[in-house]
Amino acid sequence: MENKLEHVEEEALDAYIIASAKNLQLQHKEEWLMPTQILAQTAGTVNHYIGNDFLMYRLRTLVEQGLFEMQGDTTDIFSYQVKLR
User: Fold this and answer.
1) 41: nearest Cα among 58, 62, 55, 57
2) Alpha-carbon distance 18 to 14, whole Å?
3) pLDDT for position 51
4) Within 10 Å of residue 51's Cβ, how many Cβ atoms?
5) 58: buried, middle or exposed (CB in 10 Å: 19+, 13-18, 0-12)?
6) Fewer CB within 10 A of the terminal residue: the chain, N end or C end?
């Protein structure tokens, strides 16, 4: 297997992030989720190395776009929660 970098559009993983959040909401029967849960689920779904910083950036972008809602202290990843709108 050849290791190489592959360029994809910035939003290429957004569908994985959204699907991971939906799956977690169903599994836990909870509307609000810790972002760390979504990041772990998404990283486990994608077959390539994706840094947590990039996934966190995309999750925050989805919040800004109105696809997710956020509550809590956003300066600490363990102090806030997100939910799908």
Assistant:
1) 55
2) 6
3) 84
4) 10
5) buried
6) N
Q: What are 58's two structure tokens? A: 């995309």
**HSE-CB for 37 with a 13 A CA cutoff:** 20
Instruction: List, as own/partner pairs, every contact residues 9-13 make where C-beta atoms lie below 8 angstroms and the sequence separation is at least 24, other chains included.
Output: 10/58, 11/58, 11/61, 13/42, 13/46, 13/50, 13/55, 13/58
With a cut of 50, list the residues of the chain below it in pLDDT: none
List all residues 6 or more positions away from 13 whose beta carbon is below 8 Å from its beta carbon.
Answer: 42, 46, 50, 55, 58
Do the beta carbons of residue 6 and residue 14 sit within 8 Å?
no
How many residues appear in the chain? 85
Site of tokens 């994985």: 16
